[in-house]
Design goal:
single chain, seven-stranded parallel β-sheet
């Protein structure tokens, strides 16, 4: 099996990226303390062509050397916004028609493999602090809670890993709906 050289990956230029149609999804980081995790989320947002990131509370924002190190430049073109309070950002997204989906372990959660997107619906996915998770204040604003099934003893994934897992499932579902429409 031959690896594909970087020169053949058909990477978008920064301008092409800005013009490309985006997945109708934003990621909201609720007080994520690690700038390295934030940089990884920028890279994932780039990979899946997300609309934007919302960096809230203590979440680090660009320019930041640790974000830069892990984002590999994605923080230069992925659209992002800062909000001092996550609940206010979430309330505004809700007013703009986004379904607010907290990614958390909760009594009323839906397992990711049982969650189905609604075509043409916009989603705001809220990921929380590495130890405390999504704040209860934000959980109270959520329309749905999605839980990643886990089977080990920790029942805990790194925030950047959680973002990748959940976004891949949504990308897969949007792709399925788009193919069905064609």
């Amino acid at each position: 099996m031959q690896k594909t050289p970087n020169s053949q990956l058909l990477r978008l230029t920064e301008e092409d990226y800005r013009q490309a149609p985006k997945l109708p999804v934003v990621v909201v980081l609720d007080n994520v303390r690690s700038a390295n995790n934030v940089g990884s989320v920028f890279r994932t947002a780039d990979a899946f062509l997300l609309e934007a990131l919302y960096l809230c509370g203590i979440t680090a924002t660009p320019p930041n050397k640790d974000i830069h190190k892990t984002a590999l430049g994605a923080a230069d073109w992925v659209q992002w916004h800062y909000a001092p309070q996550t609940a206010l950002a979430v309330a505004q997204l809700k007013e703009q028609g986004y379904v607010i989906a907290a990614i958390e372990q909760a009594k009323e959660s839906i397992l990711l493999n049982q969650f189905t997107i609604v075509p043409n619906q916009k989603y705001a996915l809220v990921f929380g602090h590495e130890v405390e998770g999504v704040s209860q204040e934000v959980m109270n604003l959520a329309d749905v809670c999605i839980e990643i099934p886990q089977f080990g003893s920790k029942h805990s994934l790194n925030i950047a890993v959680s973002v990748g897992v959940v976004l891949w499932e949504l990308v897969r579902q949007y792709s399925t709906f788009n193919m069905a429409e064609q």
